[in-house]
Design brief:
Structural class of chain B: mainly beta
Structural class of chain A: alpha+beta
Shape of chain B: globular
Number of domains of chain B: 1
Helix content of chain B: under 10%
Largest interface: A-B, 31 and 31 residues
Largest sheet of chain B: 4 strands, antiparallel
Largest sheet of chain A: 7 strands, mixed
Number of helices of chain A: 24
Shape of chain A: elongated
Order of helices and strands of chain B: EEEHEEE
Oligomer: heterodimer
């Protein structure tokens, strides 16, 4: 190859490097054009055989030129050199090659090519165990290297927009369509992948309406912009989705790329066509290039790709290319396949030396190929459009007669098989609703005639179908022999058409080869399914700003700052950021010690816990008590006003969904206090049953959780602490017994005090409006200080409740646990009326032996706490099996020994039995005990 | 991304909606009279038709359950109806 930049192309110089060599490119270059201008024939190694490869195409069809790019020390892998703009200081590295593309250590792999057919890895490494081979193979496979330090900012904007008409592709047909529609008064959006509008007008010599094609294109573009229509360049429409959504990736030089989610009233697809390669021996050699790509590099970048060029073609469009290259000073020999020319091989030694045509060596440094053009129908097919084979242009074209599922999409120009520029413009003009005369092509029409040149199976040498995946014609033959004859099977067996180029240059030849081998027609063989995206789109673009907390915001307590000031260490619990512990209050740094100290202090005096995330869902109305009964396992309606009941909510499958307490305010008003992580779920479930089973005008649900801050005082001194708050409530036990609540006032605001306990100690939950939260905390801390109390983090609370055997739904229960598995059978045995999940409690499965039941586990004195997740092991006829597992495990400071909760098969009838546990290779023993390890008589509730 | 129409709030992104159930499914009760087969049908069996279907969806942002008719092949949404107009069994 003797590629060189012609004189007269004088834009500013850009410095970059390739495989460590410093090079110069020009403003406006892509990485590919800059490498060509520096005469780099070899720019990478092939995926499987490590064959040297060069630049083959000019845009997103490129199969070979994949590079890793480093800018400012951050590397992005596997970019296509043909579509990536050259930036000053860019470090470009070839992929799949070491140390460089030109000198690659693994190149000898190609010598073993005949031992590496399609399916080779599946067949060879399956025995004795794939995993023995995997590390080595993985190290050799793949292309670019991921840079773990490159974490792009979440700065990609997402724009949602609608328009009357979206035109995809700003080539001659697209421009004609957009302008015609704009003239007809419609709101038009025009998008194009390239930096400049005009498409092929940028490199083909035509005259439209008496002016140069490129100038005509610029004129149309400025007309559109002047009339206020939106034109997005550097923007790829990469997918059509349900309900008329078209997604567009816009590359922006600053401020991050953007994703446009467009909902057009109508779509005109003018995506053009992609040139096909020819299939012959050694057609993958660097220096073999698509014919129109050579014209593109000449006109757009001033690069002549060779001096002695052979142009192998089956169509007349190549005549345009030959003329232009000759004018630029190259000698061009045309080998026209329609006139009997056969390309029999390529003489290559570091570069092309000759081309073998019909047995004759023609000296050449570059071989251009054209096997005809394939219309870019991807977006049409994604929208469920159907194709038909058009024999006259040897390609699939949209079958417009077939109904699609999206709003009107019309396909114009080369994408519709209209390969002549005047026909393309006329069809765009008409689709855009143009009235009168379409723009006229006054010079430079090259009529498109093509003679099909499909792969001819049966050859002895290797001829490439898919350059990117190293799939040869022999691989297609093998697939056919092994009965992978459907194109979908062919694709998956050989990987033909996969990866970054998605077979833009290879699919048509691949299916034509399969058609020839199987004797089926091309139409009958069909295409694989077209799926978005049309080009590789960065995940950063699809994610936009929805990352981290913007994707999944953590919920924060009103008192977060106060907790922080008190030395809280925060963790996330069910979506809420809550204090895990306050080590600082005891001057303890070790988190485990801090938790022990808090838990012990709360048992001795009083602890203050922020329980604000606890659910407070109000159920009101004449049917409120009926809904509450239906929703709950336990009957709720029999409560007296002012009293509280603990209960479960089951799924219809009978499984415990959540537990919590319900306060009855009046016969028509209940407050459901569910667990913090289930508030939204319980609210939606209540809504669902309310609307499904009840008259929604007779019962209403309001989630007041965010309006109230709840601070809980727990421990023997809690009554004294709450008494000091001056709430105006009689706190004597007969007036406010356990499981009751009263309403009072705190500093002039409403306050509610509920006596419920999640620790087993006397406890008071004090709820006030969020605006009073800070004042309440401060008053409670003052009281606690006098009483020797402390702040209590979530970790200590989890410990305290485990000492009592109080479960956490979803932690100490799993997706099979029913109430009777916890020994709570009253409602199941006695309730006559319907409740959610009732029928499921009486199925064969619900009543079978061997259900997992909640129990405690006790270890011998001096032994360490059991690991959470450890399995109980039983041996049945010589085989080990799991008979349950540890769900919660702590060291109890008040008991001075470890405690644990577990789900164990038949656990409730096995109390006292010794069991063996197993965890990460270690065996332990424990004894099954009741769930409640501390104060089983419950004296401390009133202590 | 599909567009669904809440009968109360109008057309919105599909991400605002959750599927509820296939329409027409009636909760079998009282439990004592329901065979295990019928209960299992209610819990787990779906018609899952190819083509036109009527389903209950909830618009999570307003909390309203409603009936939607759509095509499971083309994904075309043909109707969104409020359930407030339909006769409702009232539990006492």
């Amino acid at each position: 190859m003797n590629a060189r930049r012609l004189p007269g192309f004088n834009s500013a110089t850009i410095r970059f490097s390739f495989d460590g060599r410093s090079l110069e490119g020009r403003q406006g270059d892509t990485i590919a054009s800059a490498l060509l201008a520096n005469n780099f024939a070899i720019i990478g190694r092939s995926f499987k055989y490590h064959r040297p490869r060069g630049i083959f195409g000019s845009w997103s069809e490129e199969p070979n030129a994949i590079v890793d790019v480093t800018i400012d020390g951050k590397t992005t892998p596997n970019l296509r050199a043909t579509t990536e703009r050259l930036v000053d200081g860019m470090e470009v590295r070839s992929v799949n090659s070491a140390p460089s593309a030109a000198r690659d250590r693994s190149a000898l792999l190609d010598r073993f090519a005949r031992f590496l057919p399609a399916g080779f890895y599946y067949k060879t490494f399956i025995l004795p165990d794939w995993h023995l081979f995997e590390p080595r193979i993985r190290a050799m496979a793949g292309l670019g290297r991921v840079d773990p330090t490159n974490e792009p900012a979440a700065d990609c904007a997402v724009f949602h927009q609608s328009c009357d008409l979206l035109v995809i592709g700003a080539g001659p047909a697209g421009l004609a369509a957009a302008c015609a529609a704009a003239d007809a008064g419609r709101k038009v959006m025009l998008v194009d992948e390239r930096a400049e509008a005009g498409g092929t007008l940028g490199w083909c010599d035509v005259e439209i309406d008496g002016m140069g094609g490129a100038d005509w294109g610029q004129l149309q573009l400025s007309r559109l912009r002047a009339a206020g229509h939106q034109v997005l360049l550097n923007s790829t429409a990469f997918g059509t989705y349900d309900h008329d959504l078209v997604s567009v990736w816009q590359r922006r030089e600053t401020g991050g790329d953007a994703l446009w989610q467009l909902r057009p009233g109508e779509i005109i697809l003018a995506a053009g066509a992609i040139e096909r390669p020819l299939v012959f021996a050694d057609n993958d050699r660097p220096g073999v290039m698509l014919a129109e790509a050579a014209l593109f590099y000449l006109r757009q970048h001033g690069i002549l790709v060779g001096s002695e060029i052979v142009l192998a073609t089956n169509n007349d469009r190549s005549l345009l290319v030959a003329r232009a290259l000759r004018d630029a000073g190259a000698t061009v020999t045309i080998a026209d396949l329609r006139q009997g020319a056969r390309i029999e091989g390529v003489g290559w030694h570091g570069g092309i030396e000759h081309v073998l045509v019909n047995g004759r060596k023609i000296a050449a440094d570059c071989l251009l190929v054209s096997g005809g053009y394939t219309p870019s129908v991807h977006l049409f097919c994604q929208a469920k459009g159907k194709l038909r084979l058009d024999e006259t242009i040897a390609a699939f074209v949209p079958d417009n007669a077939v109904n699609r599922t999206m709003s009107p999409m019309r396909i114009v120009g080369a994408a519709n098989g209209e390969m002549d520029i005047d026909a393309a413009i006329a069809s765009g003009f008409s689709a855009g609703g143009g009235k009168g005369k379409a723009p006229a092509v006054t010079e430079g029409i090259q009529r498109y005639h093509v003679g099909a040149a499909w792969p001819e199976p049966g050859g002895k040498t290797r001829a490439w179908i898919d350059l990117q995946n190293d799939v040869t014609l022999k691989d297609v033959e093998l697939a056919a022999r092994e009965n992978f004859r459907s194109v979908e099977h062919l694709k998956r067996y050989t990987t033909l058409g996969m990866a970054t180029d998605q077979g833009k240059t290879s699919n048509m030849n691949g299916l034509a080869a399969m058609a020839a081998i199987t004797g089926r027609g091309i139409a009958e063989t069909g295409t694989t399914t077209y799926r978005p995206p049309f080009v590789p789109v960065p995940f950063t673009v699809i994610a936009g700003r929805r990352r981290g907390e913007l994707m999944n915001p953590v919920r924060r307590l009103t008192l977060e700052n106060e907790h922080k000031a008190a030395g809280a260490v925060f963790r996330e619990y069910g979506g809420w950021l809550r204090p895990a512990h306050y080590g600082a209050q005891f001057g303890i740094e070790d988190w485990a010690e801090a938790i022990q100290a808090e838990a012990l202090r709360a048992r001795q005096t009083v602890g203050i816990l922020d329980g604000s995330p606890l659910g407070k869902i109000e159920v009101m109305g004449p049917l409120a008590s009926a809904l509450m009964d239906f929703n709950s396992y336990q009957t709720i309606s029999t409560l007296k006003p002012g009293r509280i009941r603990y209960g479960f909510m089951l799924t219809e499958a009978g499984v415990i969904y959540d537990d919590g307490v319900v306060s009855k305010v009046s016969d028509e008003h209940f407050i459901v206090s569910c667990s913090s992580g289930h508030v939204q779920g319980v609210y939606m479930r209540l809504e669902e049953w309310r609307q499904d089973q009840f008259d929604p005008d007779q019962v209403y649900i309001h989630n007041s959780t965010p309006q109230w801050a709840t601070l809980t005082a727990t421990g023997p001194a809690s009554r004294e602490l709450v008494a000091g708050l001056g709430l105006g409530i009689d706190l004597d036990d007969p007036a406010l017994p356990h499981m009751s609540f009263r309403e009072g006032q705190f500093a002039g605001a409403a306050a509610r005090v509920a006596r419920v306990s999640f620790t087993g100690d006397r406890s008071y939950e004090v709820s006030v409006p969020q605006s009073m939260a800070a004042a309440l905390l401060s008053a409670m801390r003052e009281g606690a200080a006098k009483l020797g109390g402390c702040l209590l983090g979530s970790e200590a609370l989890l410990l305290l409740r485990a000492e009592k055997g109080y479960i956490i739904a979803g932690k100490d229960t799993d997706g099979t646990t029913m109430p009777h598995d916890l020994g709570i059978t009253g409602p199941r045995d006695k309730r006559q009326n319907e409740y959610v999940g009732k029928r499921s409690l009486f199925t064969e499965n619900a009543m079978r032996e061997g259900r997992l039941q909640a129990v405690g586990l006790t270890v011998d004195a001096g032994k360490a706490a059991l690991p959470t997740g450890a399995h109980l092991i039983e041996t049945v006829s010589g085989k080990h099996r799991s008979a349950g597992f540890v769900t919660s495990s702590y060291w109890s400071p008040v008991l001075g020994r470890p405690i644990a909760l577990a789900l164990v098969e038949n656990g409730l009838s096995r109390l006292g039995q010794s069991v063996e546990l197993y965890h990460l290779g270690k065996s332990k023993t424990a004894r099954i005990s009741p769930v409640c390890a501390f104060d089983p008589e419950g004296k401390r509730l009133n202590g | 991304m599909q567009i669904f129409t809440c009968p109360f709030c109008g057309p919105r992104d599909e991400t605002e909606f959750h599927f509820g159930a296939e329409a027409g499914k009636v909760r079998p009760e009282p439990a004592e009279t329901i065979s295990a087969e019928d209960w299992s049908q209610y819990l787990y069996s779906k018609a899952n038709p190819k083509g036109s279907t009527r389903e209950i969806w909830v618009h999570t942002t307003c909390g309203e359950f409603f009936a939607m008719e759509r095509d499971t092949v083309s994904h075309e949404v043909t109707a969104s109806d409020s359930l407030r107009r339909e006769t409702k069994r009232v539990k006492k």
